[in-house]
Amino acid sequence: MQIQPILAALRKHRLATVLIMMEIALACAVLCNACFMIAHRIQLSRVDSGVDESALAVLQVSGFEAGQSGDLNARMVAGLRAITGMQSVSVVSGVPFGSQSINAGVKLDRAGKHFGGVLGFYNDGPGSFEALGLTLVEGRAPTPDDFQPLATFVPSDAQVIVSRTLAEHLWPGQKALGKEFWIDKYHFRVMGVVAHMARTGAGEGGTGTIEWSVFVPALPGPNLAGTYLLRADPHDLPRVLRDAKAAVATIAPDVVLDHDASQTISDLRQRYFRADRTMAGMMVGVIAALLLVTALGIIGLASFWVQQRRRQIGVRRALGATRSDILHYFQTENFLIVTGGIALGMALAFGLNLALMRIYELPRLPLLYLPAGALALWLLGQLAVLGPALRAAAVPPVVATRSV
C-alpha cells in the first residue's frame, strides 16, 4: 500500500493527528519510566541480605542509662539464652531491614583525599558473625581478639569484614584483604570478605549501593547495648521470639520493650519493602489507566474518521478495493500516527528520566525499555483501531455510494 495518499489524508486533519500523537508520546514516556521504576523497586525488594533470615529475629529495648548497659547486656543475654529453643543471643547495633542504622562516608587514604562513598556499618558483638550466617569467601572470620570497645560509634582501630560488592567498588580488580580505609581518625583494615551483606537501610542509595556494608567486631558496652540478635530453628523462631518478649519483664523490668522493632528478620523485610510494593501497585494502575485512555482516544478518532469517510470508502470499494485493502489502510494510518507519537515519546521519556534522576536519585533509564514501550504501543494501536477498521471494511459499496 502506498504511504503518500495516507499522509495526504492526515495533513487534512492536522489538529486531530497532532493531538493523538501527543497523547501517544505522553503514554510512551510514562510507560517506559513507570515500568523502569517498578522493575527497580522489585529488584530492591529481592536483595540478598546475606544472613539466615528464616532463623533470625531481633529484640530491642530502651529506657536505660548508659552506665547500666554492662549489667543490662549481661542480664539480657543470660536470660534470653535460657529460653527453650534459643540457639544463640548476641548484642548487635542493628540488623538488615531494621529501624537502626549507622552510615558514614569513608576515605581510602589517611590524608582524606579519596572518597570511597557512604557505607553502612554493623557494630556487632561476639557470636554475632556466626549467628548471622554470613558466607565468608575470602580471609577469616573474627576471633575474640578482634572485638574492641567502641570509641564513639566505631572502634578507633578495627579489623573488619566487607561485602564482595563493596570490595569491588572500593578496590576494583584488586584483592581486598589487608586494604585500609578511614573515617577521620578511625582506621579500618579488611580481614575478610563475605558473599553478600545488605546494609541496614537496605534500599538506601539504590541497587548499586545496597551491599556497601561493613561488619565491625565490637564489645558490648555503653555504645552497644539494648539490641539483641536471636537465633533459633526456623520452625521454633515465632514461639522463641514470643517467649523472649514475655521474658523481658522478668529479666529487666526497668527497661521498655520496643514491640514494633522486635520482629523476625523475615517480618522486618516484609515491612521494609511494603511501601515499594504499594508504589509498584499504584504504578501498574497508572499504566493501565493511561493505556486505556490512549486506546479509547485511538478508537474514538478512528471511528470518527470511518464515519466521515464512508463515501470515500464506498468509492474505493466500487473501484475494486477489497475489504482487506480497507482494513490495511486504517491499520497503516494508525501505525504511522503511533510511530510519530513514539518518536516524540522517546525524547520525552529521557527528559522525564533526567528529572527523576535529579529529584529522586533514580538510575538512568536503560535503553531496553524504549523498544519494549514502542512495541507495546504499536500493539495497542493496532488492537484499538481493529474494531473501527473492520466496520469500515464491512460497508457494502452500494450502501456507501447511495448518496453519490
UniProtKB/TrEMBL annotation:
Main location: membrane
Alphabetically ordered keywords of this record: Cell membrane, Membrane, Transmembrane, Transmembrane helix
Domain ABC3 transporter permease C-terminal as annotated: residue spans: 286-396
Pfam (any one): MacB_PCD
Residues spanning the membrane: 15-39, 279-306, 335-356, 368-390
Family: Belongs to the ABC-4 integral membrane protein family.
Protein name: ABC transporter permease
Species this protein is from: Dyella ginsengisoli
